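Incident review: delayed structure delivery

Summary: a single-chain prediction request sat in the queue longer than the usual turnaround. Root cause was a stuck worker, restarted by the on-call engineer. No data loss occurred. The affected request and its eventual output are reproduced below so the record is complete for anyone auditing the incident later.

Affected input:
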Amino acid sequence: VKVVESGGGLVQPGGSLRLSCAASGFTFSSYDMSWFRQAPGKERELVAMISGGNDRTKYVDSVKGRFTISRDSAKNTVVLLMSYLKPEDTAVYYCYVPTFGSWGQGTQVTVSS
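Output delivered after worker restart:
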């Protein structure tokens, strides 16, 4: 099982970014997929999750209405679309497959003017 994130970068407050997580080594559409983030000096926290099979989604309260998680099973990719970004969204964002305990290497998101 392998997951690789991409799409991070520097963005101004109020801007948008699209993170992608490319997955391999398992039947992608059948499993929960999630995004976590870890800011400097803070614990890693769950940001969003999409369920296997029915694609139900769940978000941490601080990103509801701003972030959207989705799955493209044809491409074995899960996407986190982030809008109206705030400085407090600055963190390393990780893709995680709960069933296998697999983490990606992370991608840095910095929100700053």
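Verification: Residues 23 and 55 are 16 Å apart (CA to CA).
Action items: add queue-age alerting; document worker restart procedure.
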